[in-house]
Amino acid sequence: MTVQSKVVMLGDVSVGKTAIIMRYVANKFQNELNSTIGASYQQKAVQNKLGNIVMLQIWDTAGQERYKGLASLYYRSCNAVVLVWDVTRLDTLEKAKQWIHLLYQETDLIPNIILVANKIDLYDGSLDEIDNLQNDFCQEFNILKAIKVSASSGVGIRDIFQTIADKAEIVEEENQKVIDIEEPNSFHWKCC
Ligand SMILES: Nc1nc2c(ncn2[C@@H]2O[C@H](COP(=O)(O)OP(=O)(O)O)[C@@H](O)[C@H]2O)c(=O)[nH]1
Ligand SMILES: [Mg+2]
């Protein structure tokens, strides 16, 4: 059975949301990305740790976050959020907090949130410092996992989406299993 999962990318403009998708889906990196180009979402199938195929539908923005924020329709009813900040611009971590507040306001069901520190290839400081910043963030908000990545080198990118796939709900399949298990049992019970 294939499970569908809607994933949305959130974060300040230029933190690398599009670059992360491109690295994951096409294993490519471009220094100059045109924010107006591109489909609204990309799909990629990935096997999760239970052996189920999860079809990730990864939603990007076409630069709307630069101007007036995003329509709440974009992130409403999503299963997971990839919340990206840029380690070379600390203010983008503050922006990430604003995105979470918006998310809390707009959605009834809070999705799984992965906090992603991008562009670690450009960072000369101590990686412990990044870990501390992310840990503080995780204590303040309910974050599934915090990851350090580089869309440029590719490090950490797979981990983002594998974590999401591993968490994807398989409600229908579980219901199916209950039926499969219960029917032979009740038949057996009636017989004897
Ligand atoms: N060195 C480096 N540059 C990056 C990385 N990720 C994105 N960029 C660059 O940062 C700029 C903004 O990236 P983009 O994906 O368009 O950001 P978005 O606005 O969040 O979608 C582009 O010039 C990218 O090439 C990274 O991990 N390392
Ligand atoms: Mg973009």
SSE topology:
Elements: E1 2-10, H1 17-26, E2 41-47, E3 53-59, H2 64-67, H3 72-75, E4 80-86, H4 91-106, E5 112-118, H5 127-140, E6 145-148, H6 157-167, H7 171-191
Parallel strand pairs: 1-3, 1-4, 4-5, 5-6
Antiparallel strand pairs: 2-3
InterPro entries: P-loop_NTPase, Small_GTP-bd, Small_GTPase
Protein name: Rab11
Pfam families: Ras
Keywords:
192 residues; alpha/beta; 6-stranded mixed sheet; binds guanosine-5'-diphosphate; Rab11; GTP binding
Write structural notes for this entry.
By secondary structure, the protein is α/β, with parallel strands linked by helices. The chain has a single domain, classed as 3-Layer(aba) Sandwich (Rossmann fold), CATH 3.40.50.300. The protein contains 7 helices and 6 strands, in the order E-H-E-E-H-H-E-H-E-H-E-H-H. A 6-stranded mixed sheet has the order 2-3-1-4-5-6, with helices on both faces. Strand 2 and strand 3 (53-59) form a beta hairpin. The longest helix has 21 residues, at 171-191. Bound molecules: guanosine-5'-diphosphate and magnesium ion. Residues 11, 13-19, 30-33, 35, 118-119, 121-122, 150-152 line the site of guanosine-5'-diphosphate.
